[in-house]
Design brief:
heterodimer; A: about 350 residues; alpha+beta; 2 domains; 7-stranded mixed barrel; B: about 220 residues; Gyrase A, domain 2; Cyclophilin; 12 strands
Chain lengths: ~350, ~220
């Protein structure tokens, strides 16, 4: 089965959970920006957690499916439709052979994940199918998708096939959307103003009193120079009590660095493995998805939480995800079906 | 993050390597990777796995595990370092800043090449970009401040000097270092079983080659 790319959209790349075990070689962890959406997408189509998905940004691609395919769109709402049938995010949907998926305006959020039963089949590079654009490796030829590309899809799992048959009707529609969907507790949170929870970083104590107050008391705007590598935040410039010469050290997805200009940078999926700027915070893993869905010009506020709270949030999200995973076969065995 | 010192020196470097090797040989639950740096090591782990063993307190559990693991850590006998020789064609269009560097230090370009290729360098850490090695050991005599205006695209394999550091760009990237030559050897190559040429703790020597040798090796 292949997917034909009719248009690539603004930036559509193949992403899984990345290559975190190659960071000692200077190779970025990479992978999906919004892991919540990516994981839930795979779950809704019966895939393994690490199956490769398509991550598309603001302007979605146009894709034609060569055979009947089970998909799920998760994350941003980019007004997807097959013909006249809207494909809402967070629901599995069965597309018939030859169906063309199109996207419209970005109604909410920035990044949509297209999870396909069987996963996008591209070669593994350093144990991952993720695209690393800066070094042009991984994913589909190390680049974003273009018109004319053909993507191979892997073999759907037994569970995928069960979900497919539950959605297969005799109505001959080109797209059938499941009535059931991912519960609110496992979805990416979208709010009017993003509140991002932050753990204190190694150098938070070096901030001046006024800057510390501004970090958690003021509003930051996502700068236009934000990408998969990092989000630069404009706001009240932050400063340190004394200038210190720091040595480069390992950093993580969500580390908040403070370069000399005073505009903090949240390191994202394609971050470098090490950095030499002061680290004034670490975004709680569960809130990285909130950041990943912000567009340039959007605002956010930080709020401190403890490391223990952040890990509890992560563990309870994982537990919710596990429960949802168990609920799908149960639901199907009770004859769950779509209209 | 484990901090083992506060300055770039060989003793701290050996401690970092000893600690990294202890952790790798018996990693904590949920271990993903460790990133050794000049004076510290960052340990990446999955809290979900660590929480199972750690009674729902993954961070505490991993910290206690590592503390126990690193008790009595000393500058231990380490494997003999690998010595990696990197051929470099110095100057010309492959090293456009060689003459500037020479002029700044009142040396001839040949003397800069001699000093740069006579020294033995130590890979303190890998980071910044895939396979990039932070090298220590640049002779003080040819330490050169970064250029005022960084170049937007430095070719892969270019050898540069930036302050007291020297190194080789593994990939095309923007860069502010003074470019003194280029190697035909791939520092980072995804087609190789071991994609990165250099690893933490390696010793490096640069060997001058001619343009003809460079062209032949690159062909």
């Amino acid at each position: 089965m292949t997917i034909r790319v009719v248009t690539g959209g603004l930036q559509t790349t193949v992403q899984d959970l990345g290559r975190p075990s190659h960071q000692h070689q200077g190779i970025p962890g990479g992978g999906a920006m919004d892991r919540i959406a990516m994981r839930v997408g795979n779950l809704l189509v019966g895939n393994d957690a690490n199956a490769a998905t398509l991550e598309s940004t603001l302007i979605g691609p146009t894709l034609t499916f060569g055979a009947e395919t089970l998909i799920a769109l998760t994350g941003a709402d980019l007004e997807a439709a097959v013909g006249a049938t809207p494909i809402p995010p967070w629901h599995p949907a069965l597309l018939s052979a030859g169906a063309t998926l199109r996207f419209g305006r970005a109604l909410r959020g920035c990044r949509t994940y297209v999870a396909v039963a069987g996963g996008i089949d591209v070669p593994l590079v350093f144990d991952s199918r993720s695209t690393y654009l800066r070094a042009e490796f991984g994913g589909f030829d190390g680049r974003a998708l273009h018109a004319g590309d053909h993507l191979a899809v892997g073999e759907p799992s037994h569970l995928s096939k069960r979900i497919m048959s539950s959605l297969r009707g005799s109505n001959g529609h080109t797209a059938t959307v499941a009535r059931w969907s991912a519960g609110a507790s496992i979805r990416t949170t979208f709010t009017e103003e993003a509140i991002v929870r932050l753990i204190r970083g190694a150098h938070t104590d070096l901030l001046t009193e006024a800057s510390l107050a501004a970090l958690v008391g003021s509003r930051f705007r996502v700068s236009a120079s934000s990408d998969r590598m990092g989000y630069r935040l404009d706001g009240e410039p932050l400063s340190l009590r004394a200038t210190t010469e720091l040595l480069s050290e390992g950093v993580a997805f969500g580390t908040v660095q403070l370069p000399p200009g005073g505009a903090p940078i949240v390191l994202m999926a394609d971050r470098q493995t090490t950095g030499g700027y002061p680290r004034i915070g670490e975004v709680a893993t569960v809130d990285l998805s909130i950041v990943a869905q912000l567009k340039p010009g959007d605002h956010l506020r930080f709020r401190f939480i403890s490391l223990e709270e952040a890990q509890d949030l992560y563990l309870s999200w994982q537990q919710d995800l596990r429960q949802a995973e168990l609920a799908i076969p149960f639901h199907l065995s009770r004859g769950g079906s779509a209209s | 993050m484990i901090t083992l010192g506060d300055a770039i020196d060989e003793r701290t470097h050996r401690l970092v390597r000893a600690a990294a090797s202890r952790i790798r040989s018996h990693p904590p639950p949920g271990f993903v990777d460790l990133v050794p740096a000049f004076v510290s090591i960052v340990v990446h782990y999955d809290p979900l796995v660590a929480a199972r063993e750690g009674n729902g307190r993954p961070y505490e559990h991993v910290v206690n595990f590592l503390r126990e693991r690193l008790t009595g850590l000393a500058v231990e006998a380490l494997d003999a370092p690998r010595v990696v020789e990197i051929p470099v064609c110095y100057g010309g269009d492959l090293g456009p800043d060689l003459d500037d560097v020479a002029r700044m230090h009142e040396l001839s370009p040949d003397e800069v090449v001699r000093l740069h290729s006579a020294a033995e360098y130590l890979v303190y850490m890998i980071g910044f970009m895939p396979g990039f090695a932070y090298l220590g050991g640049l002779p003080e005599r040819i330490a050169t401040p970064r250029r005022k205006t960084p170049r937007t695209a430095v070719p892969a394999g270019t050898v540069g000097i930036g302050g007291r550091q020297t190194g080789v760009y593994p990939l095309v990237s923007p860069g502010g270092w003074n470019l003194i030559g280029r190697t035909p050897v791939k520092i980072f190559d995804i087609a190789r079983a071991e994609p990165t040429l250099l690893g933490t703790g390696d010793r490096v020597r640069f060997r001058p080659i001619t343009r003809a040798e460079f062209d032949e090796a690159s062909a």
